[in-house]
Specification:
Helices cover 36% and strands 16% of the residues. The protein has a six-stranded parallel β-sheet with strand order 14-13-10-16-15-17, sandwiched between helices. Strands 2-1-6-5-7 form a five-stranded parallel β-sheet, sandwiched between helices.
């Protein structure tokens, strides 16, 4: 029997997918860190069945001094030590087939399920586990190295991160999971978080498993799982929805569910007094029809609690009422229902304090006041505003003229950073600025 015939008999008796093989090369000064994780569970089974293989390269083995030193003080001074380039260079060059070289680093792109699937197609992957304060930067000039990070936090070294990457990548290797549908149904597989799971008993301490899961109606069960997956994603990782593979019916469910989520916690105020003139003096400015309409449409689109036009000038208040009533109660009512819905969000008030009292009346809480400015005076980040929104209402103030006056800025709890903080040209219309800022604040909330 020829070797080729033996090979084809093997293929006939075994799943073709079991022929795939991946080599992991791990550069680390602590190879013993990986001993226990690789001796249990699916990783051990994959090693035993020759689906994956590991080699560990210790940079200390490529040193010449008695202490086997791999680190030294950083040029320029500073705390901590830096991994030296020579032992690392020799460690990498000792690998016959390094394949894709990855450096575990907080400066890398965040590792995710999509990246894991991409890497699973490689035949060989080399993972560099850093230690100390970092690695001599010149190593990235010698090799084609890609930095990756497993999150915005600091570890003692890259070993724990490397293990996360190994496990995430290995799960996509054909034959690793046993049942390949497991990887298709878990979190991130379709861009969404996974639905909740339950098993026996059907009731525990008066807590029951959802009835639909006990019904035997597979169509309803699949529908429940899909909607639960959407709900979990919407609640905990709404940022994933932007790139998720959504079905037409998903949008209807999310729209219905959105109305119950967090309430309408963000309120917008467009201040016409007190604002600044070009010479820096305080003044009042006129309303603009486009500002009223366009910002109202943005507020309606993002489900905002209310939009306040703030001016103490009676003529301006009456003008705003006429403009709004034309669409809400007047001749244009019913012609453009979408415009009518947006303009119903608008409240005309004399002073900022009046709007604050109205928000307190509606929500029962004192709003957190945030002002905006194109000048370099803001320090409040968008992520902070998002967190506050989950605790209390936020009143976001936009200025007209040449910006909000000093006394308005002083009454605020925080000033938002400029939209283009590092560019000298920041002359957006207030309509554009409001659209951009509202979108950036609410993208991870709603």
């Amino acid at each position: 029997m020829t070797p080729l015939l033996v090979f084809w008999i093997y293929i006939a008796k075994n799943d073709l997918t079991s022929c795939f093989f991946m080599q992991f090369n791990i550069i680390t000064i602590f190879p013993e860190f990986f001993k226990s994780p690789l001796e249990c569970g699916l990783l051990k089974k994959a090693i035993d069945s020759s689906l994956i293989s590991f080699s560990f390269i210790n940079p200390r083995d490529f040193t010449n001094d008695v202490h086997r030193s791999v680190d030294d003080r950083p040029y320029g001074g500073g705390a901590g030590m830096v991994m030296m380039i020579e032992p690392l260079d020799k460690a990498i060059s000792s690998i016959a087939n390094p394949g894709k070289i990855l450096l575990l680093s907080p400066r890398g792109r965040v590792f995710n399920q999509s990246k894991a699937q991409e890497l699973s197609k490689e035949e060989s992957i080399t993972l560099i586990c850093g230690r100390y304060e970092g690695i001599d930067e010149r190593i990235e000039e010698l090799y084609d190295i890609e930095r990756i990070s497993i999150g915005d936090f600091v570890l003692n070294g890259g070993e724990a991160a490397a293990l996360c990457v190994v496990e995430a990548v290995a799960r996509f290797i054909p034959g690793f999971m046993g049942k390949e549908e497991s990887t298709r149904c878990e979190s991130f597989a379709n861009g969404l978080l996974e639905h909740p799971h339950y098993t026996r008993p059907a009731e525990y301490k008066n807590i029951k498993v959802p009835q639909v899961l006990l019904s035997g109606n597979h169509r309803e069960i699949e529908r429940w799982r899909r909607e639960s997956s959407l709900k979990e994603t919407f609640d905990y990782r709404p940022d994933l929805l932007e790139d998720a593979k959504l079905l037409p019916e998903d949008y209807g469910y999310l729209r219905r569910y959105k109305n119950e989520f967090l309430g309408r916690s963000l309120y917008v105020g467009l201040v016409h007094y007190p604002v600044l003139r070009k010479d820096g003096k305080e003044t009042a400015v006129s309303l603009t029809n486009l500002d009223i309409h366009d910002i109202a449409r943005v507020c309606k689109t993002y489900g905002i609690g209310g939009y306040y036009l703030i001016t103490p000038i009676i003529d301006q208040q009456n003008l705003a009422k006429r403009l709004i009533n034309h669409w809400v109660e007047g001749p244009a009512k019913g012609i453009n229902p979408d415009r009518e819905k947006a303009l119903r969000l608008v409240h005309i008030v004399d002073y900022i304090e009046t709007a604050i009292e109205d928000i307190k009346l509606k929500t029962g809480m004192e709003p957190f006041i945030v002002t905006t400015s194109a000048r370099d005076e803001g320090e409040l980040g968008l992520s902070v505003v998002r967190k506050i929104l989950k605790q209390r209402p936020v009143f976001l103030l936009f200025g007209t003229g040449h910006g909000l006056s000093k006394r308005v800025m002083e009454m605020a709890h925080g000033i938002l950073k400029p939209i283009r903080a590092f560019d000298p040209y920041r002359h957006l219309s207030v309509r554009s600025a409001a659209s951009i800022i509202i979108d950036r604040i609410l993208k991870d909330v709603y």
